[in-house]
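Morning, I've got a small favour to ask if you have a moment. It would help a lot if you went through both lines with me. Thanks so much in advance, here it is.

***
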Amino acid sequence: MKSGDKAKRVRIYISSTDKFEHKPLYEVIVYSARSRGITGATVLKGIMGYGASSEIYSNKLWEISEKIPLVVEIIDESHKIDSYIESVKPFFENIGKGHIITVDDTTIIMHKTGNKK
């Protein structure tokens, strides 16, 4: 991808406690994106949030719960994102927890690849 290219951004809103086959869901999502050749993925840790249950979760120091909101952002070319979304839908079909997936059109302003170690 280069400056000016059109792309899509996927945002997946989940909880830090969500699992897929006994693994953290956010890890499954990121490793799946990498294995499919997606340009990049980032997991963002929320400090506070709520979903359809209207139960508020936060990371206040005095709270015992480890449950906090997470957003996984993934950006790449439209055709790769469309294919990726279809591949991850099964991750969410049997999870009894709430989640939401959004897709936005975006434009690449700058993309510089780093050196692999």
Observations:
- Residues 40 and 92 are 21 Å apart (CA to CA).
- The radius of gyration is 15 Å.
- Helices lie at 25-35, 78-93.
